[in-house]
Amino acid sequence: MTGIVIEDVSKSFTIGKGSVQALSDITVTLPPGSFTALIGPSGCGKSTLLRLIADVLPPTSGTIRIGDKTPDTARRAHEIGFVFQDATLLPWRNVLQNIRLPAEVAGIPAVRDPRYLIDLVGLKGFEEARPSQLSGGMQQRVAIARALSLDPKVLLMDEPFGALDEITRQRMNMELLRIWKETGTTAVLVTHSIAEAVFMADTVLVLAARPGRIAQSIAIDLPRPRTLAMMRDPAFNGFENAVRAALFGDEVEAA
Amino acid sequence: MSGVSLSGMEGPEAPIVRDPRIEAQVALLRTLRFPVLLVVSIVVIWQLVIWVFAVPSFVAPSPLNVAKALWADAEMIARALGYTLRSTLLGMAVSLWLALSLAALFTVSDLLSRALLPLIVILRTAPILAIAPLLILIFGRGIGTSVAVVVMVTFFPIMVNAARGFRATPGNALELMHVAGATWAQSFNKVRLPFAIPYIFTGVRMAAAGAVLAAMLAEWLTGAPGLGTLILEASSFRNLPRMWAGVVVSMAAAGLFFAATVRIEQRLMR
Ligand SMILES: Nc1ncnc2c1ncn2[C@@H]1O[C@H](COP(=O)(O)OP(=O)(O)O)[C@@H](O)[C@H]1O
Ligand SMILES: [Mg+2]
Fold first, then answer.
1. Is the peptide bond before A223 cis (omega within 30 degrees of 0)?
2. Quick check: A146 and A82 in contact, CB under 8 A?
3. Which of A57, A203, A230, B87 could bond B215 through an S-S bridge, CB–CB 3.0 to 4.6 Å?
């Protein structure tokens, strides 16, 4: 298993003549096999941080390590799985062909049998279906199966269930935890939901905006496997309140 | 669309079973209904005008005479049509390849696109008549010049639309390929090109409309044995029925060529 070490990472974008500091001095270690949730206001740099880890963008300064590799090396070794907010399936490919895409690109046979993955994400019988024939939730399952197809060491998810309704979302979360357990990857989940962050993660990183920085790191000391019943637990509410306080600070009392 | 039924939502009554082949033919007839009606009307009015006003045959031949010429010169016209269509298809193929390659190159380098685009626009605006001697010098009096002229006329709309399509690729799809460790060529072939197909076909449709005419224009300049030359010669020999037979065939060929590109597009988009 592979951890992620982020040290003094900053990222600024040049927009026209000016420059925007998207992330400032991020230092954090995500242990191997852990589940981390990123939460924070819009524009605080959550997506940017995921993109830096996935080597979509280079950091302006600082270093990122995935295990003993740089993000670039890890990416080329197919150790990174990425799930976007919209499923980003190729509409002319069916479910099976979409899941096979990473293996095709890598020029190697799929590490995980695509049919096993389809089963894992609960889409048996839809192998030949086109994305346009699937609901939003089903499309997102395909995206997750695709991200897992080369058995990545880290799974990065940028608000993967943000567009889904509450019920589907809860169900997908349960399945995601089951899949994460089964695959043993190091997971990072960007979310807007406090309850979701607490329910899923070992550690919730609360980010603050302008410049994007880690306001607080909250360890979620709840047993696994997580169950829906836990959400009624006072301890669960305690963690929710802690995240809320870190997000809003004094505003909680003022309102 | 022949979608797989995933929902099982059909009512208790069995749906009417449809044969897709028959349905396609019905659809074809339906789309052809108005063009056919139009052509028949024009022919009838044309014939009526000639009868009623007693138009002499050296001004305009009657449809009947044109039909006779079409029948009598069928072999000659078919050979000319074959030559012109070959130039058109070859030209379109070269044009498509060139346009896609350049548009793809533009996605790699902004600088290159800013350097090359003005040059291409100049080439585009140059009257073909003016550079005809140069073309003939380079490509000769045969099919080479025909292909070159077709390329010059059809290249621009295809390239502009393809470039627009290549720029419109969803950013997430490209990031997905990048994370998967894809090379530039892999991203292009698996994502950029397929996403750009509707744009490319918009360009091809715009180009196809003028492609046959471009091939004939080249023949007027070089005297290559196609439909253009046939029409020109018939005209100079005052053989109006044959000239009009050539015109009718070239118009039909252009229309069919256009329709074929639309059909291919529909096939690919399914
Ligand atoms: N490619 C980019 N170019 C310029 N600015 C960017 C780019 N990506 C993100 N930003 C800026 O960086 C900041 C953080 O963005 P983002 O990471 O998308 O936030 P979040 O995902 O938390 O909503 C925002 O101010 C955004 O405008
Ligand atoms: Mg975001």
1. no
2. no
3. B87
